[in-house]
Design brief:
- This protein is mostly helical.
- It has a single domain, classed as Orthogonal Bundle (ABC transporter involved in vitamin B12 uptake, BtuC), CATH 1.10.3470.10.
- The chain is about 85% helix and about 0% strand.
- The chain contains twelve helices and no strands.
- The longest helix is centred in the middle third of the chain and has 30 residues.
- It is globular, with a radius of gyration of 18 Å.
- The mean pLDDT is about 90.
């Protein structure tokens, strides 16, 4: 680990990677507790995997792949939310379909681009060491949006997360708030693309929040603990992967999974 922190002082790409990891961790800490408490991890996974379609189309037409990812994530979130609220059935089938269709479209379009294998691997498993400065600003803007919406709408979103019927009886705009929550999750998925890739998004989004939920029962405290834990895990994963020259994304997720398992065993023994 000392080798990583020494290199951090000299190499700009490592500094950018660290900043990107911290920005992504903030998004995870803010949105992860909502996902865990509402138990919509499968929805978050569906949104994440459908994003590859938007990225593939954007790359094929020479546009910014993150812009394509953002559009695909938001559209998928709105479609899943609309079906969930109005059809009251078939939600799992739709998510599975979007999951498969998005991945297939992305792979097909990326396969038409020369050198697509490297691009595909980086999108699936992350390329945090290759984050350019302009995308750090993009990630910072997404974090600012997430933080602003949470500060303004936290109580209302919380009411919908815990009890939709109660929120509706109180006169809250349940449809708007639920769709807003899914859009926020979609923004977080886009934040995580560079860090751990599309396949491993769900682990970093949910596991730190799940660990926090084992020790506190306030969603606000879950957010604080999950954010700090996510930052620690991202930094530790980067440091551990640097020396052996391992892929940082899988290393971060492996460390996150181990932290969850250890915490679960400890909390069960404590009870």
């Amino acid at each position: 680990m000392s080798e990583f922190f020494q290199a951090l002082l000299h190499y700009q790409f490592l500094q950018y990677a660290l900043i990107a990891g911290v920005l992504a961790a903030i998004g995870c800490g803010l949105m992860g507790p909502y996902v865990v408490v509402r138990r919509i991890g499968f929805i978050a996974g569906g949104i994440a995997h459908s994003v590859l379609g938007g990225m593939g189309v954007a790359l094929y037409f020479g546009a910014d792949p993150l812009a394509g990812a953002l559009v695909a994530a938001v559209l998928s979130a709105l479609l899943i939310g609309w079906v969930r609220l109005h059809w009251h059935t078939g939600e799992d089938i739709l998510i599975g379909a979007l999951w498969a269709i998005g991945m297939a479209i992305g792979i097909l379009f990326i396969s038409r681009i020369p050198g697509y294998q490297a691009d595909l691997v980086s999108y699936l498993f992350g390329n945090i060491l290759l984050v350019p400065e302009r995308e750090l600003w993009f990630m910072g803007a997404l974090d600012a949006i997430l933080l602003l919406v949470v500060l303004v709408w936290h109580r209302q979103i919380l009411a919908v997360v815990f009890d939709e019927e109660y929120a509706r009886l109180r006169g809250l705009p349940v449809t708007f708030l639920y769709l807003l929550l899914l859009v926020l999750i979609a923004l977080t998925v886009v934040l995580l693309i560079h860090v751990v890739g599309l396949i491993l998004v769900l682990a970093l989004l949910t596991l730190p929040a799940a660990v926090a939920g084992q020790y506190v029962h306030s969603v606000a405290r879950m957010m604080a603990i999950a954010t700090l834990l996510s930052i620690f895990l991202v930094v530790a994963g980067l440091a551990m992967s640097y020396g052996p020259n391992l892929p940082p994304g899988p290393a971060i997720v492996l460390l996150t999974g181990m932290a969850y398992l250890v915490s679960t065993l400890f909390s069960r023994r404590r009870r």
